[in-house]
Amino acid sequence: MHNHFRKAAHTDASQIWTILQNAILRRKVDGSNQWQDGYPNPEIIQADIEKGIGYVLTDGEIVVGYTAVLINDEPEYDNLQGEWLTNSDFVVFHRVAIAQDYLGQNLSKKMIEHIEAFALTNNIHSLKADTNHDNFAMMKIFEKAGFVFCGIVHFRGSPRRAYEKVL
Fold first, then answer.
1. Using alpha carbons only, how large is the chain's radius of gyration in Å?
2. Which residue, of 12, 91, 113, 161, has the fewest CB within 10 Å?
């Protein structure tokens, strides 16, 4: 499989939304309340693409993964109940999802490696992210990738586990 990580284009939107819809369904089947409140949705994907923060992992022409990648742009992280490892510039990523047919191939890990490279290219040495308290798969991915649990942040009224990795 030949992976490429690049900014999402408007032509990717329908593939991205299919990936996210399947991920939303998987979270529901897992019994989670994460992503069960109308977020994320096609409007958010469009906004990500327009702002230039949506990124895709591709296998040839096929979009196999999606994430939003931002620099220093997560106001909720100022309200962490806990302590970050660093207090300088950081890259934050949200909305990580892998295509149904590509699950179990370590593509989330691969995507995080691309995000690390993006951070270092921008001379930033911290990655931050968060996930639901019951998203055990994502927590395991974070821990395996060397992230440290730093505390709790709240999004749309729900507590989320926040992680940081120093590069």
1. 15
2. 113
pLDDT of 110 higher than 90: yes
Taking the CB of residue 77, how many other CB atoms lie within 10 A of it?
19
123, HSE (Cβ side, Cα atoms, 13 Å): 0
Fill in the amino acid letter for 85: L
Structure tokens at 74: 């997560």
* Ramachandran bin of 4, using left for φ above 0, alpha for ψ from -120 to 50, beta for the remaining angles: beta
Q: For residue 59, give the 3-state DSSP assignment.
A: strand
pTM of the entire predicted model: 0.93
β-pairing, 91-98 with 62-71? antiparallel
What is the C-alpha separation between 77 and 104, in angstroms, rounded?
30
Beta-carbon contacts of 10 under 8 Å, excluding residues fewer than 6 positions away, are 46, 49
By C-alpha distance, which of 75, 144, 142, 146 is closest to 161?
Answer: 142
- Beta carbons of 67 and 111 less than 8 angstroms apart: yes
Could you check whether the bond before residue 40 is cis, i.e. omega within 30 degrees of 0? Answer: yes
- Expressed in percent and rounded to 5, the helix, strand and coil fractions of the chain are 35, 35, 30
What the block records as the tokens of 50 is 């327009």
Do residues 8 and 56 touch, judged by C-beta distance below 8 A? Answer: yes
